[in-house]
Amino acid sequence: MKKLLLLSSLLALTATVPKHQAVGTEILWDTYGVPHIFARTDEGLFYGYGWAQAQAHGDLILRLYGQSRGRGAEFLGESYAEADRWVLLNSIPERAKTWYAAQTPTFKKLLDSFAKGVNDYAAKNPTKISASVKPYLPVTGVDLLAHSMRVIHYVFVSPSAAAKAAEAQLPDQNGSNTWAIGPSRSASGKALLLTNPHLPWQDFYTYFEAQLNAPGTNSYGITRVGFPCLTMFFNDDIATAQTVNTNDGQDFYQLTLRDGGYLFDGQVKAFSVKNKTLKIRQADGSLTEEIVTVNESVHGPVVAAKGSKAVAMRAAGIDRPGMLQQYWDMMHVKNLAQFQTVMSRLQIPMFTYSYADRAGHIMNLFNAEVPRRNAGDTKTWNGVVPGDKSDNLWTDYLTYNELPKSIDPPSGWVQNCNESPWTVTFPMPNDPKNFPTYLAPPPAMSFRTQRSVRMLMEDDKISLDELIQYKHSTRMELADRILDDLEKAVAASDNAEAKEALSVLKTWDRQCNADSRGAVLFEAFVKEWAKPAGGFSRIGTASPLFAKPWNTADPINTPDGIAKPAEAVKALETAARQIKKAHGSLDVAWGKVYQFRIPASDGTMTDVPANGGPGPMGVFRVMTFAATGRAMDNPIRPFHGDTYVAAIEMSTPVKARTLIGYGNASQPGSKHHTDQLPLMQKQKLRTVWRTKAEILRYLELRERL
């Protein structure tokens, strides 16, 4: 009887869709909206993956594909025009066609199959796709390449904000944590991997979680929406994750304009000029047209000009069209040797990779397409360099063998929190003196990195459960470093308000959990204290705020001390006044100010106390919050931080727990938008289901394609 009831339940959940080239593919959607795609062929797998992404994120994907054509403003309005200009200026649509032509016939079919899956879902479910993005249908394999190029090469590697300032990429909040722990430091004797990207909770940063199963691959993980391959994943043999690294793949060249061209090696060289039309939809529905003129130099397009001078931009990796193919081939890797062989292609222009496998190997790789420059260091190339001579014009990249990497280090662990490649483990495995000075900044550590290293150093044997516990650490490393000095400075002063504030900080648990009292005050103090040193986001081990500088011989206990105690006392007084005015109490709980909005049992939304905090203060569980209204006492909710978390043990079978904080769907009306926030609030992860027997126990919908 139980079997009959189960069979009838599954039949009720099964959706039938039209037959096509991917017959035999099925998608098992679990109760968290994660698709488990089982296919007989690679084409069927890509088709099913395109279908699944359209079902969960159709509006978002079509909008992003439209933007990668430089046509966001044409249908969606003026607010998309600036992004379109960047796309057109960098010739992304044209280059995507060139990239498509360079793909192998086999991979072209796979890209086309993914696109067909998107198109067929939209055709079969017209009411589930918003009218505003339907003009972008149908999509093609070229769109997949244009979108991935736009996101990776022209958001991460070469952002438009940096071009406006004619300087290298400005520091931002985007980042990640990764750990790889070898058998010697694992309680189970099996390698462990932690995946934990920190990015905005919207737009092209959005991740999509899935399982992809076809002959030769059974991979589980995430990709950015609109990408046809997983970018961070595990299979039965290996696990890998990536973090944004310090590679400078965006260079600016100052040109001297002359006679309609520019000076280069003593001669006037003509620009290659193309005029492109940007269409912009107005509020009344009419279209206006704008001509975007692209002046292409030998360095790249001109991105700024004033008087007789101009600035041209050169972007790394746009001459290497195999990024998506490399991601796909990585999913088939079974051991460290194969992983290194695939990674040595260097088709992915940036990201530090952490790796662990079933054989017990771990690795950290500073993966990057590093331009082979003639001279200079990172400071040189982070500015604007002379473009009037061919000496500065790079045309090649460092090879895989020339990149910093650490394989099975004596420490038994590697980690990365977006720092340069020198501090991935201790003792430091790579001496900066052995590498070009332009490859990465000199050794330094953020306080988040120090927190990461401290937790790894202080536990000789880490279990999977402990890995998850450490991942959720909200302890503020900066507080451990300076509160004793702040106490001395306040004791030596006659500042009554600072003394009152210090009494709160002395009883605070130095964490930013929901019930932590003192964290709000400490955060306000640090923001005031850091203003003279460049602001909150500039706090790091090289900051002049500290009396004792950072020392590689004592990497997690330095810097230390407060360089200017009187200024720190004044900053604490100012912060105390701010917090009293805003919240009425100096010991207001962190979760009273910062909150998650989660669904209640009746379907309504409610605000609940949040945990996690700012990375610059040494919090490993990064959450970045913003106010929902003008008053400081309005709910302040996350817009950035922990996106996806995966804790993986390379046992047989693999043990894995994951969470995607903002949910696995963005389509209007989906119940899988924010349905995982209750787990995030409780600092818990979900158990990953990978076998059909497991998935069927937690089945929400079965689709046979």
Overall description:
The chain contains 20 helices and 31 strands. It is globular, with a radius of gyration of 26 Å. Among the domains are: 2-164, Orthogonal Bundle (Penicillin Amidohydrolase, domain 1), CATH 1.10.439; 175-245 and 320-380 and 395-453 and 460-471, 4-Layer Sandwich (Glutamine Phosphoribosylpyrophosphate, subunit 1, domain 1), CATH 3.60.20.10; 477-592, Aminohydrolase, alpha-helical knob region (Penicillin amidase (Acylase) alpha subunit, N-terminal domain, Orthogonal Bundle). The longest helix is centred in the first third of the chain and has 27 residues, at 42-68. 31% of the residues lie in helices and 24% in strands. Residues 1-18 and 166-172 have low confidence and may be disordered. Strand 26 (623-627) and strand 27 form a beta hairpin. With 705 residues, it is α+β, with helices and mostly antiparallel strands.
